[in-house]
Protein backbone atom coordinates (compact mmCIF):
# COMPACT_ATOMS: atom_id res chain seq x y z
CA UNK A 1 0.00 0.00 0.00
CA UNK A 2 1.42 3.39 -0.95
CA UNK A 3 2.10 5.78 1.94
CA UNK A 4 -0.48 8.29 0.71
CA UNK A 5 -3.28 5.74 0.31
CA UNK A 6 -2.34 4.20 3.66
CA UNK A 7 -2.57 7.58 5.39
CA UNK A 8 -5.91 8.23 3.72
CA UNK A 9 -7.19 4.80 4.77
CA UNK A 10 -6.37 5.43 8.44
CA UNK A 11 -7.75 8.97 8.29
CA UNK A 12 -11.11 7.64 7.07
CA UNK A 13 -11.00 4.75 9.56
CA UNK A 14 -10.58 7.17 12.47
CA UNK A 15 -13.71 9.00 11.31
CA UNK A 16 -15.85 5.87 11.74
CA UNK A 17 -14.05 3.63 14.26
CA UNK A 18 -13.39 4.50 17.89
CA UNK A 19 -11.05 2.86 20.38
CA UNK A 20 -12.12 1.47 23.77
CA UNK A 21 -9.41 0.31 26.14
CA UNK A 22 -9.50 -0.69 29.80
CA UNK A 23 -7.20 -2.51 32.19
CA UNK A 24 -8.45 -5.70 33.86
CA UNK A 25 -6.72 -8.40 35.86
CA UNK A 26 -4.77 -10.92 33.83
CA UNK A 27 -6.85 -13.76 35.32
CA UNK A 28 -10.13 -12.23 34.18
CA UNK A 29 -8.74 -11.51 30.74
CA UNK A 30 -7.48 -15.08 30.32
CA UNK A 31 -10.81 -16.51 31.54
CA UNK A 32 -12.70 -14.31 29.07
CA UNK A 33 -10.38 -15.34 26.24
CA UNK A 34 -11.00 -19.03 26.98
CA UNK A 35 -14.77 -18.49 27.10
CA UNK A 36 -14.75 -16.56 23.83
CA UNK A 37 -12.59 -19.22 22.17
CA UNK A 38 -15.13 -21.85 23.22
CA UNK A 39 -17.92 -19.70 21.74
CA UNK A 40 -15.84 -18.93 18.64
CA UNK A 41 -16.21 -15.17 19.17
CA UNK A 42 -13.72 -12.34 18.96
CA UNK A 43 -13.39 -9.77 21.73
CA UNK A 44 -14.66 -7.13 19.31
CA UNK A 45 -17.76 -9.13 18.42
CA UNK A 46 -18.45 -9.92 22.09
CA UNK A 47 -18.05 -6.29 23.15
CA UNK A 48 -20.28 -5.05 20.35
CA UNK A 49 -22.97 -7.51 21.48
CA UNK A 50 -22.68 -6.29 25.09
CA UNK A 51 -22.84 -2.64 24.03
CA UNK A 52 -25.93 -3.30 21.89
CA UNK A 53 -27.49 -5.16 24.82
CA UNK A 54 -26.90 -2.21 27.17
CA UNK A 55 -28.15 0.36 24.69
CA UNK A 56 -31.37 -1.54 24.05
CA UNK A 57 -32.38 -1.43 27.74
Low-confidence stretches: none
Mean pLDDT: 93
Which bin fits the share of residues in helices? over 70%
How big a fraction of the residues is strand?
A: under 5%
Summing up helix and strand content along with how strands pair, one would put the structural category as mainly alpha
**Which term fits the overall shape?**
extended
Radius of gyration: 16 Å
* SSE series: HHH
Spatial separation of the terminal alpha carbons: 43 Å
Q: What is the tally of beta strands? A: 0
**Mind describing the biggest β-sheet?**
none
SS field, number of helical segments: 3
Describe the model:
The protein has a domain of 36 residues. The radius of gyration is 16 Å and the shape is extended. By secondary structure, the protein is mainly α. The protein is built from three helices and no strands. The model has no long low-confidence stretch (mean pLDDT 93). The chain is 72% helix and 0% strand.
Amino acid sequence: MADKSRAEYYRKRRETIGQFSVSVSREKLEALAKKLDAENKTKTKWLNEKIDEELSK
